Amino acid sequence: MTHAEIVPNDLASSVKPQSVLFTVLGRYVLDRDMVVSTTSLIDVLASIGIGEHATRSTLNRMAKRGLLTRHRAGRNAYVALTPRLTEILRDGHIRIWRTGAVEANWDGSWTMLTFTFPESWQRQRHDLRARLQWAGFGSIQGGLWIAPAGADVREVLRGVEGADRVRVFRSRADAETDIPGMLHDAWDIAGISALYSDFIERWSDPERTRSHSVLGVQLLLVTEWLEVIRQDPRLPLEHLPAPWPAAPAQRLFHDLHDRLDAVARGEAAQRLDLRSPESLPRR
């Protein structure tokens, strides 16, 4: 199977420039103590149809948000990861390569979380809800949130204003509890299933393809896969509708990724201008 046979026609337009940049930086800059030239990043993103203006604008926004620092070497501009972006990229790496899309070791227990904030704390309430959703929690009713056991609540609450008002419990459902119904109340089960099914359709159909570089194909593949699994709370398989498409989608992702990896890495070595910070001339 060639790279031209597996790239969906509409995929490049479905991902955001920042998401692709995160993928590039996470794969080739993270934990390497390197800086990368903006010109080479523009070149790589251009190969998958993202224009120079969009890439430059995204890099500027990332720098303003404290995700990147800028460095100059003559006329050349380089960027480096900040600790904040490093943390985000490491989280993505863990989700893709360690956590995965299928919960295989669920022990039957749940993490339950409740909180009560004053009416005036609208911002704090919004921030906490956003963090809970990002971490895979679903809302059953009111201020009661639930996730399969294993959720790292301390990480979710780190730096949250009002964390001392949050109460956390570990529990098991009674035998008569309608767990599948509870999951449908707390999460968009049909929507999560559709994410995986759509991924499989796009990356399996040779009729919906167009040519890109192998590096570009792999960057698009990894970018979309991470966006899919970030929206999946990894609920217990035994309580989900069968056949649940997460496992076949994950197998497809790994199969395509591994087929492309050697060539993609070789292309990245040629196209990305990576240097150690110490090698840049000092002003």
Number of helices, where a helix is a run of at least 4 consecutive DSSP H or I residues: 10
User: How big is the Rg?
Assistant: 21 Å
Instruction: Return the average pLDDT rounded to an integer.
Output: 88
The percent range for helix content is: 40-55%
Number of beta-strand segments: 8
Overall shape: it is: globular
Please mark out the parts with pLDDT under 50 across 5 or more consecutive residues, or reply none: 1-9
Largest sheet: 4 strands, antiparallel
Percent of residues in beta strands? 5-15%
Describe this structure in words.
The protein has 283 residues and is an alpha+beta fold. 48% of the residues lie in helices and 14% in strands. The radius of gyration is 21 Å and the shape is globular. The relative contact order is 0.19.
Structural topology:
Blueprint lengths: L16 H12 L6 E3 H9 L5 H13 L3 E6 L2 E6 L1 H17 L9 E7 L6 H13 L3 E4 L2 E5 L4 H5 L8 E7 L6 H8 L2 H16 L9 H16 L16 H26 L2 E2 L8
Antiparallel strand pairs: 1-3, 1-8, 2-3, 4-6, 4-7, 5-6
Helix pairs in contact: 1-4, 1-9, 2-3, 8-9, 8-10, 9-10
Core attributes:
283 residues, 4-stranded antiparallel sheet, 8 strands, alpha+beta, disordered N terminus
